Amino acid sequence: MGTDPEAHQSASELLAAWRTAGRDTVAARAAAEVADLALRAARAAEDAANEVEAAAKAALEAVERAGSAANHARTAASQTAEAAALALSTAQGAEQAEADAKDAFHKAEDEAFGKG
Questions:
Q1: Is pTM, for the whole model, over 0.70?
Q2: Is it the case that residue 101 has pLDDT exceeding 60?
Q3: Residue numbers of the domain that contains 37
């Protein structure tokens, strides 16, 4: 049973090609798995970026609302100060009116006792 050297070499070449193709297939599958993991990581990073953006927008809105609340508080404080000043002025006027009424009473009392 003789073998043809060309057929033998052809079989060796085919076997080598088959093994090479097998290694290439394993490498391609590994590369596909890495690519899949990279894609998942990229999607997760995009989701995280969207969450960060939403948090930043919420923080900016909170800052704007805090500024608005501070302005309202300033306005309320100013109005309260004005009301307090008016109340103090009214109280001082009432004290003066009381003092004037007391003086008028005592003057009238003195005059009434003096004539009596």
A1: no
A2: yes
A3: 10-86
